[in-house]
């Protein structure tokens, strides 16, 4: 199935996703700008104040090495319930982050398409995005023996909208309680809301050659909900 067919869902589906995601929306102040952050469909927010959520939140914050601020983190609601019962294996989650230099900075209208164009020229693995679109190669086969544990590989720019640029990555991970190494897919949306540009990332396991396109479709609906919540 070609990627453009997978992404060809109607406006009604986006609106339904937007309405569903409004339920857990939270307001946050970025510099002097107030934005409304909506949760990904099917995911629940982690609490930075209570355990065990706070440990996951802190670990994610440390991974950013001070380069960005972690605004919010979410986990698949079923996986979060298991986490709070003592099962620390989870794979489906999402984060909102903003580079520190952008926290107080005002971004001009229309900056995302320009940034997306720059990304297309600078990402060396951009050609892989075209391979995925044509479904001519399996990501796992493409990276067989070529990716180290915890190493991220770029999938290039996957899609573009007026207020969002979608980039992809795969990373090889290993759960603490499992010996098997697995690939994790990440779809990163660079989003402009009002005069702020930040990143909205979603993570899911790599299952087959449709994993990237499916996660991209899902995240475009998440971003539609975010944009809708901030258009009032």
Structure explained in plain terms:
This protein is α+β, with helices and mostly antiparallel strands and 232 residues long. 35% of the residues lie in helices and 31% in strands.
What's the helix-strand series? HHEEEHEHEHHHHEEEEH
Helix tally equals 9
Mean pLDDT across the residues is 80
Count of spatially separate domains: 1
What global shape is seen? globular
Strand segment count? 9
Regarding quaternary structure, what we see is: single chain
Radius of gyration of CA atoms, rounded to a whole number: 17 Å
Q: CA-to-CA gap between the ends?
A: 36 Å
Spans with pLDDT under 50 lasting ≥5 residues?
1-21
Strand order of the largest sheet: 3-4-5-9-8-7-6
What's the main sheet like?
A: 7 strands, antiparallel
Amount of beta strand: 25-35%
Please estimate the helix content. 25-40%
What structural category do the secondary elements indicate? Answer: alpha+beta
Give descriptors for this structure.
232 residues, alpha+beta, seven-stranded antiparallel β-sheet, two-stranded antiparallel sheet, 9 strands, globular, disordered N terminus
What is the compact description of this entry?
This protein is of the alpha+beta class and 232 residues long.
